[in-house]
C-alpha cells in the first residue's frame, strides 16, 4: 500500500506531489483519494470536483460505490463503478515520458505529419527490450482474469509489474488518462478506465498494456474470455486474432500501409463482424503515438510504404454485427459500440526488417 496520494488537481502547477490536504466532504461521504497539495489546487478543481459529491449523495450503492453517469443513455450492460482508486505512485528513480507531469505529449504534436522514423540498430534493440517487458506484463495481467476480479485490480497488477521492471506505464496521465492500463469489457471498444466493476462469468476483457523503458514505448493488447463465454464471443475473439495475424503476414519492405485494411476487412465480414474505423494502428518508438497512421478497414487512404527500421502497431477492433461506429461515455475516454454488442481487439508492435517483419511483442496466441 502506498504511503501517500498525488495531488488530484488536473492543473496542479507543482507537478502533482504527494499530498495530505483531503477534501472534507469526500471524507464524510467515504470517497477515498481526494487529496490536494494546497488550497490553490483545491479551489481550482472545485467546480468539477463538487459534481462527485452530488453524484455520491444520490447514486451510491450500498457498498459505497456509485455510477457517476446515472443519466447517461448507455448502449449496453456495462456500467462504470466509482470512485476510482487514487492515482498510483511511480518511484522517482524511474524515467518518465515528457507528458507524465502535465499530460501533454508535446513531442508528438511537434512531429505530427512527419515521415515515419527509421530506427538505428541500437534503437531497434531498445524496442526489442521494451516490447519483451510489455509482453511479460500483459501475460502477468492475463493470468489474473477471472470472475470476481475488478478491473482496478488488473490496473494495480499492471502498474506494479511495470515499475518492478523499472518502466513507466505509458497510459498514466497520457492526455490526462487516470490509470496505468486500459481495460475494455464487452461492448467497450477501447480506452476503458479501470474501476471497481467486478468481472463476471461470460464477459470478455481487453487488456491494453503500454510501457516506457530506456526512452522507448511498447504497445500491445489482447482480448480474454472471463470464465465460460458464449459462441458469439468465441467467434469474435477468434476472428479478431485471425484478422491481426493475416495483416501481419503482408508486412515487409515495400508493402503499402493502406493494404492492411484490405486484408482485415474481408476476415471480419466473413465472420459477421464490423471493423471499427475511428481508431487506427500507429507508429510507436520514442513516441507513444506517431506516424504512420494505419486504418484497419478496406478502401482507406493511408499513405506510405513500409521500410526497414520502421516500428508500428496494428490493432484491429472488431464489433459483432454490422455497425462499426462507437460512442463515448461522459468520461471522454470509454468508447462503446452504438448497439451494445461486444467488441474485441488484438495488438502487436512490429519492426520492418530488411527481409520481412519481426513481431516485437509476440506471445502465445489466445485460443478460445
What does this protein look like?
The two termini are 36 Å apart. The mean pLDDT is 93. The chain is globular. With 368 residues, it is an alpha+beta fold. Helix content is 27%, strand content 20%. The protein has eight helices and 19 strands. Strands 5, 6, 8 and 9 form a four-stranded antiparallel beta sheet that branches. It has a three-stranded antiparallel beta sheet with strand order 7-16-15, with no helix packed on it. It has a three-stranded antiparallel beta sheet with strand order 10-14-17, covered by helices on one side.
List the helices and strands and how they pair.
Layout: E1 5-6, E2 18-19, E3 21-22, H1 24-29, E4 35-36, H2 39-44, H3 46-59, H4 106-110, H5 121-142, H6 151-164, E5 168-169, E6 182-185, E7 188-190, E8 204-213, E9 216-225, H7 231-249, H8 259-270, E10 273-275, E11 281-283, E12 290-294, E13 311-314, E14 317-320, E15 326-328, E16 335-337, E17 343-345, E18 348-352, E19 357-359
Antiparallel strand pairs: 1-2, 3-4, 5-8, 6-8, 7-16, 8-9, 10-14, 11-12, 13-18, 14-17, 15-16, 18-19
Helix pairs in contact: 5-6, 7-8
Amino acid at each position: 500500500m502506498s504511503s501517500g496520494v498525488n495531488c488530484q488537481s488536473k492543473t496542479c502547477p507543482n507537478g502533482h506531489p504527494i499530498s495530505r490536504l483531503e477534501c472534507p466532504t469526500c471524507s464524510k461521504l467515504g470517497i477515498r483519494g481526494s487529496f490536494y497539495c494546497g488550497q490553490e489546487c483545491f479551489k481550482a478543481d472545485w467546480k468539477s470536483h463538487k459534481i462527485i459529491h452530488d453524484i455520491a449523495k444520490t447514486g451510491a450503492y450500498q457498498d459505497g460505490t456509485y455510477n457517476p453517469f446515472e443519466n447517461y443513455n448507455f448502449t449496453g450492460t456495462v456500467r462504470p463503478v466509482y470512485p476510482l482508486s487514487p492515482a498510483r505512485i511511480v518511484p522517482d528513480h524511474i524515467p518518465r515520458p515528457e507528458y507524465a507531469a502535465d499530460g501533454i505529449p508535446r513531442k508528438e504534436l511537434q512531429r505530427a505529419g512527419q515521415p515515419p522514423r527509421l530506427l538505428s540498430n541500437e534503437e531497434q534493440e531498445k524496442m526489442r527490450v521494451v516490447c519483451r517487458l510489455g509482453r511479460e506484463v500483459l501475460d502477468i495481467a492475463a493470468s489474473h482474469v477471472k470472475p470476481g476480479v475488478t478491473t482496478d485490480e488488473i490496473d494495480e497488477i499492471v502498474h506494479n509489474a511495470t515499475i518492478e521492471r523499472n518502466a513507466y506505464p505509458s497510459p498514466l496521465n497520457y492526455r490526462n488518462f487516470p490509470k496505468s492500463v486500459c481495460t475494455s469489457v464487452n461492448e467497450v471498444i477501447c480506452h476503458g478506465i479501470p474501476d471497481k466493476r467486478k468481472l463476471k462469468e461470460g464477459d470478455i476483457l481487453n487488456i491494453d498494456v503500454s510501457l516506457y523503458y530506456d526512452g522507448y514505448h511498447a504497445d500491445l493488447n489482447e482480448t480474454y474470455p472471463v470464465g465460460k463465454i458464449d459462441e458469439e464471443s468465441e467467434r469474435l475473439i477468434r476472428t479478431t486474432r485471425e484478422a491481426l495475424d493475416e495483416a501481419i503476414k503482408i508486412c515487409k519492405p515495400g508493402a503499402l500501409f493502406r493494404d492492411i485494411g484490405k486484408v482485415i476487412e474481408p476476415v471480419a465480414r466473413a465472420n459477421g463482424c464490423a471493423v471499427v474505423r475511428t481508431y487506427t494502428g500507429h507508429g510507436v518508438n520514442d513516441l507513444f503515438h506517431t506516424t504512420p497512421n494505419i486504418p484497419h478497414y478496406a478502401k482507406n487512404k493511408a499513405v506510405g510504404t513500409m521500410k526497414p527500421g520502421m516500428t508500428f502497431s496494428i490493432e484491429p477492433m472488431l464489433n459483432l454485427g454490422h455497425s462499426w461506429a462507437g460512442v463515448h461515455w461522459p468520461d471522454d475516454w470509454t468508447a462503446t459500440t452504438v448497439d451494445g454488442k461486444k467488441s474485441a481487439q488484438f495488438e502487436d508492435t512490429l519492426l520492418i526488417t530488411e527481409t520481412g517483419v519481426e513481431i516485437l511483442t509476440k506471445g502465445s496466441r489466445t485460443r478460445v
